[in-house]
């Protein structure tokens, strides 16, 4: 009896003290220092040596697009060498040390965030260090994270991912792993494997977001939660009339070997395909989504969705029509009416992608580099990215611009600390 009483007393007292300690901690960071030392204090909360500190680069000035500061970032680009996959394997070999040294133990959500848990599906295949940075930027101990790595990934990369999941209890590897081929059904299956594992999780998440290894958040978890609450059970994704893209499912596609960049990819044959089952009306979008738990449950249980998936097996890039089409099926949770206008990438806030052929028209030019018509962002886009209103940036790569990622990390951390104080 006495012990029970003591336990109850303790469970009341411990949260009180830890809140007090966190408050004191946050206050010292936010109030105790002048501008100069503020940067250093923020810096000391980061894991790796900060290039911004080493080279005296001020992220607020980058945000203000001051030419001298942007120029400095261009110089740093050339000399960047990031940690290897082996380094991540090594870092995660001692978990007690890793969660502290890499800052995961210091992350805590507010009550508001904890009552609205999120799930993430990360389909990744290389650059373990960047995956770890992405994970840290979206990490909350009350959320849940599924990592699907490619069967073709290197052994070091696989070990690094296993290391991360060993150290973080709410991060796991998908129970079934695919050999992911470009534009092929395997990409969609990787996602579905994570989705069904996440449905089994004891975390009763409200929404799921899918990311790839070159995404980076533009919103804190708290900001994301308040945006998601406003969706009121709707899903967030592109869904447009197909136009020319009809070709993708009018013919049977077969995997072909490609000596160039991708190992294999689906190629159109002359064999015509029957129309989709159940009179499904086709729409196209992107592979990225934010889905409600109810919608995922529908996809798992509905024979229509299962039939549609098997019909999609031999289509081109099925992940770009699977979700966009299912969300328009009459009666689904969070349905978008078939008669509703197109939902384009400007309306769907999940991912901010900059296409080379829309630059100048829709947005300012890329200040990083293009990879297959997609911009890999540079530091001078920091302000544009953070103010656009979308949730995740695609693509980032420290080998193209390490300063952009550091400044995104810094700005997000600032926002998190300010909203807490
Ligand atoms: C960083 O830049 C901002 C805005 O340009 C400026 O207000 C601030 O004083 C600078 N901080 C340091 C430490 O130089
Ligand atoms: C492995 O980690 C230890 C301790 O964290 C460190 O001293 C050592 O240099 C690391 N080795 C490599 C190859 O990263």
UniProtKB/TrEMBL annotation:
Subcellular localization, as worded in the UniProt entry: Golgi apparatus membrane
Main location: Golgi
Membrane topology: Single-pass type II membrane protein
GO cellular component, one term: Golgi membrane
UniProt KW ATP-binding keyword: no
Record's keyword terms, sorted: Glycoprotein, Glycosyltransferase, Membrane, Signal-anchor, Transferase, Transmembrane, Transmembrane helix
Pfam name, any one: Branch
GO molecular function: acetylglucosaminyltransferase activity
Keyword set includes Membrane: yes
Chain segments annotated as transmembrane: 12-31
Superkingdom classification of source: Eukaryota
Metabolic or biological pathway: Protein modification; protein glycosylation
Family the entry assigns: Belongs to the glycosyltransferase 14 family.
Protein name as it appears in the record: Beta-1,3-galactosyl-O-glycosyl-glycoprotein beta-1,6-N-acetylglucosaminyltransferase 4
Organism: Triplophysa rosa (Cave loach)
